Amino acid sequence: MKTLLADTLLQLVAGIDLAPAAGLVVTQLDVELPLEVSAATLGGELVFLAEPPHSRWQTGFLPPVHRTRMRWTLEE
What is the pLDDT of residues 31-62, one digit of tens each? Predict the structure, then answer.
């Protein structure tokens, strides 16, 4: 079963340590992640499903891999 895209992104954010070593200030974070993304209907609504790819090899029968880019920037 594929995971909802929103849940996958929340798990990614939860896994990032935003408390860096003492004296280090992070002002921007860029993350690039390969995801297998698909759409489906759930309860009559369109939803997007996504999860990291099964394999890093292109086999011809696995779903296409999409590049997801996210950027967090510190705002004053």
Answer: 888 888 889 999 999 999 988 887 666 666 76
Residue 22 token pair: 């003492």
CB burial string 34-49: b at 16+ within 10 A, e below: ebbbeeeeeeeeeeeb
Residue 29 pLDDT greater than 90, yes or no? no
21, part of any domain:
no
pTM to 2 decimal places: 0.62
φ, ψ of residue 49 to 5 degrees: the values are: -115, 145
Residue numbers of the domain that contains 42: 5-16+26-73
Number of structural domains, the chain? 1
Q: Is residue 48 part of a domain?
A: yes
Is residue 18 within 8 A of residue 25, CB to CB? The reply is no
Token pair 């992104």 is found at: 9
